[in-house]
Design a protein that fits this description.
Blueprint: E1 3-7, H1 11-22, E2 26-30, H2 34-38, E3 46-48, H3 51-54, E4 60-63, H4 68-78, E5 87-90, H5 96-108, E6 112-115, E7 118-119, H6 122-127, E8 131-134, H7 138-149, E9 154-157, H8 164-192, H9 197-206, H10 213-222, H11 232-249, H12 256-268
Parallel strand pairs: 1-2, 1-4, 2-3, 4-5, 5-6, 8-9
Antiparallel strand pairs: 7-8
């Protein structure tokens, strides 16, 4: 029977392990705080306090840790227990450079490192839903596709470029962070004017601004911005109304003041009568 090791028993890692156990996998687990790994023994995992022991005999070593530094440190420590031909599958959100460097480093040591970051929360890990990203050596990705596919709702394959999955995960997370702060400022403007969360939800149930993402991105990156659908001058005027409403209502805004500053810079360059998405013009190819 094949043995799998899992390093990092946070909310995501521990639920991955529970799901693997339910599928019949033999699991050896480790966490820096040993009690978190030991808690999974009641589910059928075998916990180890020494990471080198946790990986012994395992042909697959899954990782969910904090960052590049923790992944590098833990894998280096664990490597004394690696079995010949073991494959490391790292679900940690890391830098692109880190994923590229680890792929090359562990290959030089005789092991395979595959980065497979996820858009998954703990509940997704438990019920195999959400999204997992992979890119890199096609033969490795092909080999791992069947076993990674059962861990997630959709395995998104991004081609042969090593590190692209890491880059896509960071890009996606940057959108989620901006999205959350956009909602924060939206709620602040609404609250300052006496509107409620139900008012916001009611509007969004009828008018879905998310439907504009694809068209807006295409226009920002490839359209003729001299023919506006909404002039930057007018968008800046409205932004000032947001700022004034929040100030009168005594609420704090996080991102709209910075947005106003960027708009002013582009208006100062003479682009006030261009489409308001001109503010991304310096990023276009």
């Amino acid at each position: 029977m094949s043995i799998k090791a899992f390093l990092g028993m946070g909310l995501l890692g521990s639920n991955f392990v529970k799901a693997m156990l339910r599928r019949g996998d033999t699991m050896q687990v480790w966490n820096r705080t040993a009690s978190k790994a030991a808690a999974l023994e009641s589910d059928g995992a075998k916990a180890f306090s020494d990471v080198r022991d946790a990986v012994k005999g395992a042909n697959r070593i899954h990782v969910t840790l904090k960052d590049d530094a923790s992944v590098d440190a833990v894998l280096e420590q664990a490597s004394a227990g690696f079995s010949p031909g073991a494959i490391i599958i790292d679900h940690t959100t890391t830098s692109k450079d880190g994923a590229v460097q680890r792929t090359a480093y562990w290959k030089s040591k005789g092991y395979t490192y595959q980065h497979a970051p996820v858009f998954m929360g703990p509940s997704n890990a438990l019920d195999a839903s959400g999204y997992m990203l992979v890119s890199g050596e096609p033969s490795v990705v092909d080999q791992l596709t069947p076993e990674l596919s059962v861990m997630t709702g959709k395995l998104i394959q991004l081609g042969a470029e090593t590190g692209k999955a890491a880059a896509m995960k960071l890009m996606g997370n940057s959108f989620l962070v901006c999205f959350a702060f956009t909602l924060r400022d939206t709620y602040a403007v609404a609250k300052a004017q006496g509107l409620t969360v139900d008012d916001i939800l009611g509007l969004f149930q009828t008018w879905n601004p998310g439907a504009q993402v694809e068209g807006r991105l295409k226009r920002m990156t490839s359209g003729d911005l001299s023919k506006p659908s909404w002039e930057l001058d007018m968008a800046r005027k409205d932004t000032n109304l947001f700022l004034e409403a929040a100030e009168k209502g005594g609420t704090h805004l996080s991102i709209l003041p910075t947005i106003a500053t960027v708009m002013d810079e582009w208006i100062g360059k003479g682009f006030g009568q261009h489409d308001w998405t001109i503010v991304a013009n310096d990023l276009r190819d």
